[in-house]
Design brief:
The complex is a heterodimer of chains A (418) and B (314). Chain A has 418 residues and is mainly alpha-helical. Helices cover 65% and strands 5% of the residues of chain A. In chain B, helix 3 packs across helix 4 and helix 5 runs parallel beside helix 6. Classes of the chains: A mainly alpha (418), B alpha/beta (314). At the A-B interface, helix 1 and helix 10 of A face helix 2 and helix 3 of B.
Chain lengths: 418, 314
């Protein structure tokens, strides 16, 4: 284990002493992030939330007909979300789900009958004790877009819940202090609830009210661009790490390692660890730099850490596969560059996957970029570690599969010679 | 004397190419043994097999009692390898290189730091220890390359053509270092195609050609194979055709063998003084101008010429 660590640390040192590599590992993603941020207006005076994600198709089914249901429909179709969402209404939940299944929509928001009444009971009607839930029918091939819709609906529901609980507390306080009689309590509660419903439009503006100095919680375009660029150049780092393995063979240091009392497993393990460690260091620096320079919020630190480790593992798997296939360092470099750009485009680093046909979105799932972007976007929208379990799991599975294939190829070819 | 290395019928094939064809020899503890042969003779492949980098296609060898095929890790712990090409991390300093490679040989802590200081002194680079290797001259890099092989005080050091492509001063320093290491008790397997190096360094020499050991023994034993002959070298002018002159002299009276390489015709003759005049006359007759002449006592080059009909640098 000690030798694996030593070989890995040596490779990290070498990677960070290579000025050309540093430009591509760190400077290029930051410069491109700034460039794309400028294009999207992220750095314009007063502008903070241009969006690489736009016109998300969403179907809204309002079976409720009450004030809260209408408030949610109004919110989803509001002018404020006009750029972000492309809403359509439907009366039939089954038809709405079919639209999602047919990939015509990223999500369907189905407001069931009795939703308003479950929050604000009608005059004379007692609480039915059951819970009525809004259904979000998400398109699994558009997790980022579905996540955006979910975030909007979650925000709406959380404000409604806050209002409902606040109303109950207010009525209790009024009763306790003798300001209203028990007979007046129901009417007072209903009135507070209706006020809450009336305030729905304000809720849907997604303005954060926890502190005036806080930035707006609306989706920050950089939260899409920065991980997109970081993930694309992470592919460069891992492919370059693989190239370095072949270069070591050509320059004689790999054979020299193999005639020292160091096993092939230790050598290969050290090289993989070095690539992984370099990738983690690169992502950490990029995340830190974008947080400090652009005030970018990446989201739940635990989720970000898990996603970084998983994304680097997935990318390392691809780097190893490239190494196992390539015959020379120059071939590995060419192949690595091609894979980096292809995965960058395919994985959504330049163009939102929502703008691409369904089959491309399906193919994009082979890239660490697509899964990583899904995860980072979810976290930027307020998701937690649990919310990124799918992308983390997919990336780790990708890493395991690619490590396995690369190991078989290496063992067939031999590490010292081809 | 105990053998530190015993090779038995080593064979290595690369596809249809037979690089080494049944090599058997031994190296005694404390001995410098040279494998002398032209480029492509199989010297580096032999080192690669003995150092456990490549598995032999056939045969085996025991180093310090360990089999290279069955106990490679034990073998690696007792050998040091100085590869023909530089095998260093050029972006690391000399000290960082030595530190990394020392750790790969299991050294650590104070012992490693002390050993690095000793090796830096030994290779004469203590004052440049903290400079990146990429800033070094070819000779300095060669010395670091050797230093890496010495860190763990191996019992047997493999040196694969360590003086190729360096200046005479660095070459002298390396040869002196090899002798010094041997005086300290280290056994050395030294490969070269420079006859002079093998002659200066070796207790015994194995002459290898086309993957076969064609002669093996001490220098006197080997030169006796040539008989009482001498070597006459005719250095022809830059525009002269050495091969044409060698052709013309083959079969001439008193000329046992003739070969040409690098504007030099090498003749194996019973008495050089007697053969010189007819050879020069023949050169004049065919229009090849001779620039200078050397006469040598029987040496390893003559042995190689005697055994193969070719000069070592062919």
């Amino acid at each position: 284990m000690r030798k694996i660590l030593l070989i890995g640390l040596k490779d990290v040192t070498l990677a960070f002493r290579d000025r050309a590599a540093l430009v591509l590992m760190l400077a290029a993603p930051l410069v491109l992030t700034v460039g794309l941020g400028l294009v999207t207006g992220r750095f314009a005076v007063g502008g903070s939330a241009g969006s690489a994600i736009s016109d998300i198709p969403v179907v809204v089914v309002d079976q409720d007909g009450g004030r809260l249901g209408q408030a949610l429909v109004d919110a989803l179709t509001s002018a404020e979300l006009d750029d972000l969402l492309d809403p359509a209404t439907s009366a039939d939940p089954a038809a709405a789900r079919r639209q999602v299944d047919d990939d015509q929509a990223a999500a369907a928001v189905i407001i069931p009958a009795g939703f308003t009444d479950s929050v604000i009971p009608r005059q004379g009607a007692g609480p039915d004790g059951g819970s009525v839930q809004i259904e979000l029918y998400a398109n699994p091939t558009r997790p980022t877009s579905a996540g955006v819709v979910q975030a909007i609906v979650d925000e709406f529901l959380s404000r409604v819940e806050v209002g409902r609980v606040g109303g109950q507390v207010a009525v209790t306080q009024l009763l306790t202090h003798g300001l209203i009689s028990p007979q007046e309590a129901e009417a007072a509660g209903r009135e507070l609830g209706q006020r809450q419903a009336d305030a729905g439009e304000a809720v849907i503006t997604l303005r954060r009210t926890t502190g005036a100095a806080e930035p707006p919680p609306a989706f920050d375009v950089l939260a899409y661009i920065a991980p997109g660029m970081a993930l694309m150049f992470l592919m460069y780092t891992t492919a370059n790490g693989g190239r370095a393995l072949l270069a070591e063979r050509a320059q004689g240091t790999l054979p020299r390692l193999l005639v020292s009392p160091t096993s092939t497993t230790q050598v290969l393990g050290g090289k993989v660890f070095g690539i992984f460690l370099t990738g983690v260091a690169q992502m950490t620096i990029l995340i830190g730099a974008s947080t400090l320079l652009f005030n970018l919020r990446w989201g739940d630190p635990l989720g970000v850490a898990a996603l970084v480790l998983a994304a680097v593992a997935g990318a390392t798997g691809w780097g190893l596969l490239i190494t196992a296939i390539a015959r020379s360092p120059s071939q590995a470099a060419s192949l690595g560059s091609a894979v980096m750009l292809t995965f960058g485009i395919l994985g959504g680093s330049f163009i939102s996957l929502n703008a691409l046909p369904g089959w491309i979105r399906a193919v994009s799932r082979i890239t660490p970029n697509a899964w990583g972007l899904d995860g980072f976007t979810t976290l930027a929208l307020g998701g937690t570690l649990a919310d990124v379990a799918l992308p983390v799991g997919a990336l780790l599975a990708m890493a395991a599969l690619l490590f396995g294939v690369a190991t078989v190829l290496f063992s067939r070819q031999g590490l010292a010679q081809r | 004397m105990t053998a530190i290395l015993e090779a038995q019928n080593l064979v290595k094939h690369y596809g249809d190419v037979q690089a080494v064809k049944g090599l058997s020899f031994h190296i005694a503890e404390g001995e410098i043994f040279s494998l002398l042969g032209p480029n492509g003779a199989g010297k580096s492949t032999t080192i690669a097999m003995l150092s456990t980098l490549y598995a032999p296609t056939g045969g085996d060898a025991r180093i310090a009692g360990y089999s290279i095929t069955r106990q490679p890790m034990q073998v690696r712990a007792v050998i040091g390898v100085v590869p023909q090409d530089l095998a260093l991390y050029e972006d690391l300093t000399a000290r960082e290189n030595l530190n990394f490679w020392g750790q790969m040989y299991g050294l650590s802590g104070q012992a490693l730091r002390r050993r690095i200081a000793e090796v830096l002194d030994q290779i004469g680079l203590a004052d440049k220890a903290n400079k990146p290797v990429k800033t070094f001259s070819g000779g300095m890099k060669r010395r670091v390359n050797i230093g890496v092989g010495l860190l763990h005080r191996p019992r047997l050091l493999f040196m694969d053509e360590p003086t190729v492509g360096i200046d005479p001063q660095s070459r002298r320093a390396i040869l002196d270092m090899v002798k010094d290491l041997n005086r300290q008790g280290m056994s050395v397997l030294y490969t070269t195609h420079y006859m002079e190096e093998a002659a200066e360094l070796s207790h015994r020499v194995g002459i290898i050609d086309h993957g076969r050991m064609i002669a093996l023994g001490t220098q006197p034993e080997l030169t006796r194979q040539v008989g009482q002959g001498e070597t006459l070298r005719l250095h022809v002018a830059e525009d002269g055709d050495a091969e044409k002159l060698a052709q013309a002299l083959r079969g001439a009276p008193d000329i046992k063998q003739a070969s040409a390489a690098d504007h030099t015709v090498v003749l194996n003759v019973p008495r050089a003084e007697e053969a010189l005049a007819p050879a020069v006359a023949r050169a004049n007759a065919i229009g090849v101008k001779i620039r200078s002449v050397d006469i040598q006592e029987p040496n390893l080059e003559a042995v190689f010429l005697h055994l193969t009909g070719r000069a070592l640098r062919d």
